[in-house]
TrEMBL record:
Cell wall formation. The active site is at R190, S276, E397. This is UDP-N-acetylenolpyruvoylglucosamine reductase. Pathway: Cell wall biogenesis; peptidoglycan biosynthesis. It catalyses: UDP-N-acetyl-alpha-D-muramate + NADP(+) = UDP-N-acetyl-3-O-(1-carboxyvinyl)-alpha-D-glucosamine + NADPH + H(+). Residues 26-212 form the FAD-binding PCMH-type domain.
Length: 405
């Protein structure tokens, strides 16, 4: 069962509202709610909903979805399928000699097929227990495995795209089930084709992880992928690039996330959120130079210029001279922009039950009984402050249903 959903006792026989089905705990009733728990039931329910011509939406753990107080006038398919299957184990470099033994064992891989409804963090815990590295820095992210490719989940220097091989996909446009390779999903920072308009159902994901068991027998324990995030390296007392025991890395990530209110914890008043509510803005290098010197920024790789089509009647045998300067992009810190536009942790509008998390400026929280409208008002206020201060329009990270910003 997704981690946001209360048990049936808590619902006391009433119809679940989105406030019961999402981690932000806001939102009205769905017109229809289906909860298929096997792969076949999921396919059947989805095809039936699509065939009806009604509106439809998919829901996993509801940790990246915020729905309006009016609810949703259509069918909600809540994905509850479970299961992890080992497809095969492969030695990626079968030709390695004894001298390369350490590299060879490090190169062993295990491939998994994971059902869409499998809770993500249960999967991470399972892989860490087995000594399979590749997901450990993604510990503690709430939600389902099927939703993970939608925004290419990422944290502490790892992204799903580092381990994703393919998805098993039921395409809404064609009704056809097909395997889509990760390379075709345009996975980027908190985005993919699934977030950008390719509509359909992720039935399962295929992952390739590093099987450290053989290595562990040599080194005395299963090690993580190289630590790629300075704050995490600091917490572990190692350098970026070092490898540490898998379990230690998971524990450290969970502790760091807990301190920021970024795990679901019923004892934490900041827990009712959708995680980061805004993505870090990506702007041109020229625009980033208008930011104050203190604003954190991370240069991204050079973006390719779009192809230019020249109409035949304008083509004289010589192409236009290409602009030699690549488009340089820079990622800014949304948290820094919010804090420096005068909004601090714990901020709330007068009389509102929606607040900025007391631990992390990027999270909008429901402090108890907030409406989706109150969340929307706070989000718009934050956007407005940052825009008027820095000229940047922050974009929401969660899927907003019936809620305009
Ligand atoms: C406390 C907290 C911390 C978080 N930290 C992080 C973080 O560190 N990094 C990060 O990347 N995200 C983070 N998130 C966001 C969220 O956990 C992830 O985006 C997660 O993958 C959402 O999973 P879900 O099942 O809850 O998705 P839902 O909210 O149920 O759905 C999200 C979107 O995916 C679609 N969808 C769901 N299931 C499927 C499916 N099977 N097939 C196709 N589409 C589907 C839905 O229609 C919706 O559009 C955090 C959220 C919270 C609440």
């Amino acid at each position: 069962m997704p981690d946001s959903v209360p048990d049936s006792g808590a619902l006391a026989g009433r119809e679940p509202r989105f406030a019961d089905l999402t981690t932000m705990r806001v939102g009205g009733l769905p017109a229809r709610l289906l909860s298929p728990a096997t792969e076949q039931e999921l396919v059947d329910a989805t095809l039936t909903a699509w065939g009806s011509g009604d509106e439809w939406m998919l829901l996993g753990g509801g940790s990246n979805t915020v729905v309006s107080d009016d609810g949703f006038d259509g069918t909600v398919i809540r994905v509850l399928t479970r299961g992890v299957t080992v497809l095969d184990a492969v030695a990626a470099d079968a030709t390695a000699g004894a001298a390369e033994a350490a590299d060879a064992v490090a190169a062993e891989r295990v491939r998994l097929r994971v059902q869409a409804g499998e809770p993500w963090d249960d999967l991470v815990a399972h892989t860490v227990e087995r000594g399979w590295s590749g997901l450990e820095a993604l510990s503690g992210i709430p939600g389902s495995t099927g939703a993970a490719p939608v925004q290419n989940i990422g944290a502490y220097g790892q992204e799903l795209s580092d381990s994703l091989l393919a998805i098993d996909f039921l395409d809404y446009e064609t009704g056809v089930r097909r395997r889509i390779e990760a390379a075709e999903l345009e996975l980027g920072y908190r985005t993919s084709v699934l977030k950008q308009g390719l509509r359909g159902l992720v039935l399962a994901v295929e992952l390739e992880l590093h099987d450290t068991q053989a290595e562990a027998s040599v080194l005395g324990g299963a090690l993580s992928r190289p630590v790629a995030y300075p704050q995490l390296a600091g917490a572990l007392g190692v350098q970026v690039g070092d490898r540490v025991p898998l379990g230690a890395l998971r524990a450290s990530v969970l502790a760091l996330r807990g301190a920021k209110g970024m795990v679901l914890d019923p004892g934490d008043p900041d827990t009712h959120s959708a995680g980061s509510f805004f993505t870090n803005p990506i702007v041109s290098l020229a625009f980033s130079r208008t930011m104050p010197d203190a604003a954190p920024r991370w240069p991204l790789g050079d973006a390719e210029l779009p192809d230019r089509v020249i109409p035949l009647d304008e083509y004289y045998g010589v192409g236009p001279v290409a602009d030699p300067s690549p488009v340089r992009l820079v990622k800014l810190s949304a948290a820094w922009l919010i804090e420096n536009s005068g909004i601090s942790r714990g901020f709330r509008l007068p009389g509102s039950r929606a607040a900025i998390s007391s631990k992390h400026t990027l999270a909008l929280t429901n402090t108890g009984g907030a409406t989706a409208d109150e969340i929307g008002q706070l989000a718009r206020f934050v956007q407005g402050r940052v825009q008027s201060e820095f000229g940047v329009i922050l974009q929401p990270e969660p899927m907003l249903v019936g809620l305009g910003l």
